[in-house]
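Data card: per-record layout.
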Amino acid sequence: MTSLHNRGSKGGFKIGVDSKGHERREHRRHDLEQQGIKVSRWDGSKRAPKDFGKLVDLSAGGVRIRTTSSNVKADGQIRVKLELPDYAGICPFVDTSSATPTPKKEWVGWMAISRVIDVADSDEVEVGGRLVDMDEMDRGMLGLYLSTQPLAA
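The structure for this 153-residue chain is written out next.
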């Protein structure tokens, strides 16, 4: 098993639990690392998205990505493109740009980076953060989609 260390600190990786032992997360995380889903960094509509890394886990509120990119820092924001395969007949997102909502497989939006953690014995880092501008319809469909996936530890 790969051990994780906080970048620039001597402490180990900490689970989000409050003092009473309750998990702080609003949404359950789902392990998608085995699927090899790539995440793109989207720097604007004029440029094509660039490969950023691979999806480690995902919830309806946030994401964790493993990447070799070293130019990301905690407390920053990046624009990402998530493209997920449909599963069990469910598409993870909804296109509401027309009068009739239609299913879609991709979402482009902002990720607020809350942590950047070095992966031991590797030149990779894990970047974790919240998906901040996802509308409630997409968040609800993503939650339904993820309910069919295995939970992360």
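Known properties of this structure: Residues 136-146 form the longest helix (11 residues). The domain at 29-146 is CATH 2.40.10.220 (Thrombin, subunit H).

See the next section for split statistics.
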